[in-house]
Amino acid sequence: MMTLRFSRALYAGEAVDEALGAFAHLVTAERSATAEAWELRLTCLYPAHTRRIVGELGNYALARTIERGGAL
Amino acid sequence: MSRIDLRQLRLDPRAPAFFRWREVGEHVVVTNLEGRYLLLSLDEFKRFAEGQVEAGSPLHQRLDEANLLRASYRVEEAAAALRRRKSFLQGGGVSLGILVVTLRCNETCVYCHASRANMEAVQTDMSLETAEKAVDLLLSTTSPSITIEFQGGEPLVNFAAVQRVIEAAKAKNQAIGKRLEFTMVTNLALMDEEKLGYLLDNHVQICTSIDGPEKLHNAQRKLPTGDAHQRAVRWIKEINHRYEAMGLDPTLYHVEALLTTTRETLPLWKEVVDTYVGLGCRALFLRPIDPFGFAERTRLRVEYPRSQYMEFYRRAVDYMIELNKQGVEILERYAAIFLTKILGGEDPNFLDLRSPAGTGIGQMAVNYDGEVFTCDEGRMLHEMGDDTFLLGHVDTHRYRELVGHETVRAAVIASNLDGQPDCTNCAYNPYCGTVPANNHKTAGSMFGRMRESAICAVHKGIQDYLFEKLATADAETRAILERWTTHRPREHFIQGL
Amino acid sequence: MHQTPHNVTAELEEGAIRLRVDREIYPLPAIYGASYVFIDRCFVFLERDGEGRVVVTLQARDPNPAEEALRALVGEFSNELLSCAWRHQITAENRHLIEAVTSQALAGAMGPPSLDDLASFDFTSDGFEDPLGIAQSWEEKHGRKNKAQEAGAAGAGEEEGGR
Question: Residue B113 sits in a domain of what CATH number?
Answer without folding.
Answer: 3.20.20.70
